[in-house]
Write a structure and sequence with these properties.
oxidoreductase activity, Butyryl-CoA Dehydrogenase, subunit A, domain 3, AcylCo_DH/oxidase_C, seven-stranded mixed sheet, flavoprotein, alpha+beta, single chain, about 15% strand, AcylCo_DH-like_C, about 50% helix
Length: about 400
């Protein structure tokens, strides 16, 4: 593995950072999260038109740029630095790879060019205890079921001319505003129970959506109700959905890790800057040895997490799963950096007027959505066969 960035990768990072600096400053960020959609459509258009960001990791034959998960992770590291609220994670990281992997030729040709152009946003609606369960990041997904009959979830049934869905999914990233939903639904009854993926247009009759109040406003989520909604099966009925979800999960984790590293690096930079300005006992607090030690510990954690995220992104395209471990390390680094940022900023750090609390909420929200770290590590150890029957495998 060559750890040096190519000229193209460095240009992606530099250009994206400049665009976000101009279009996603603190004032614009707060204005965007207060809109019904939770993001700025003008920023999304700029990212799509100037950088081709939505189609960065999609093949060129579908209008994409043709890059790998590594470039997508580098891009998300920059959006994480700015806490940029956009449909990128839901559309290009969670949904588009599944359409590419399982969709028919007609479905790919009809959907992926629109996603790559930024004209179509999408969201993955997965019912169950956690999205990471379906993606096989915090447990085996071999027994995962998208619905449980009267107990909840989403059910699919055949109807004249196609399929119908009914049920509810909470905590869908950008589920309230996406132009298309990719819904995991349960079908086949008890004897032939299985999970399939279905495409649902955002304006389909019977579909009701509402934005949820969340801890992290920069990560908007929606609750989705399906009331006998017409849907199109993604791919074919014999598609192996659960392995596809698990395969996509590793790349998703690598990209999420890079995003968390970007946020952790930025909050550390701001904390170091503030420590050099805040005076106490006639000197900057950053000159005190105890503060230096605390910031040094955060720096080491962030750099280690960045290395793990870069490796996971590189390995994702080679079938060498390391995403869960990288995500666990990145989530811990972000939590550590955000907590120290709050502490060293003092009382102002958790006021609404200051941005430090936004990074703290991102850290807490990501742990709830994609963690906790110990479950990610537990699953990674299980998948690697590290422990067998309580003994260390040799």
């Amino acid at each position: 593995m060559d750890t040096r960035l190519t000229a193209e990768q460095d240009e992606i990072r530099r250009t994206l950072r400049e665009v976000l600096r101009k279009r996603c400053g603190p004032a614009r960020l707060r204005a965007a999260v207060d809109t019904p959609a939770g993001h700025d459509p003008l920023l999304w258009s700029a990212l799509a038109d100037r950088l081709g960001l939505p189609g960065l990791a999609l093949p060129e034959r579908y209008g994409g740029v043709g890059c790998s998960a590594t470039e997508l992770a580098l891009a998300c590291e920059e959006t994480g630095r700015a806490l940029a609220p956009s449909p990128l994670l839901a559309t290009s990281v969670l949904t588009a790879p599944l359409v590419l992997a399982l969709g028919t030729g007609t479905q790919r040709a009809g959907l992926l060019p629109r996603i790559a152009a930024g004209s179509l946003t999408a969201a993955l609606a997965v019912s169950g205890p956690a999205l990471t369960t379906a993606l096989a990041l915090t447990g085996r997904n071999t027994g995962y079921s998208a619905g449980g009959g009267r107990a909840g979830g989403v059910q699919a049934r055949r109807a004249e001319g196609g399929w119908r869905l009914y049920g509810e999914v909470a905590q869908v990233l950008d589920g309230h505003s996406a132009g298309m939903l990719l819904v995991a639904a349960h079908t086949g009854g008890y004897a032939r129970s299985r999970t399939l993926l279905f495409l649902v247009a955002g304006d389909e009759p019977g579909l009701a959506r509402a934005r949820q109040s969340t801890l992290d406003a920069t990560r908007p989520q929606g609750r989705v109700h399906l009331r006998d909604v017409r849907a199109e099966l993604l791919g074919t009925e014999d598609a192996d959905v659960l392995p596809a979800l698990a395969a996509a999960g590793d790349a998703v984790a690598a990209v999420l890790a890079a995003e968390a590293v970007g946020a952790a690096g930025r909050v550390l930079e701001r904390t170091v800057e503030y420590a050099g300005q805040r005076m106490q006992f006639g000197r900057p607090i950053g000159s005190f040895q105890a503060v230096k030690h605390r910031l040094a510990d955060v720096y080491v954690a962030v750099q280690a997490a960045r290395s793990a995220a870069y490796y996971a992104a590189w390995a994702a395209g080679r079938g060498q799963g390391a995403g869960a471990l990288a995500l666990a390390q990145a989530l811990e680094a972000l939590r550590c950096a955000a907590a120290e940022g709050i502490q060293l900023h003092g009382g102002i750090g958790f006021t609404w007027e200051h941005d430090a609390h936004l990074y703290f909420k991102r850290a807490a929200g990501d742990e709830l959505l994609f963690g906790p770290a110990h479950r990610l590590r537990d699953r990674a150890a299980e998948a690697a066969g590290l422990f067998t029957g309580g003994e260390v495998a040799v």
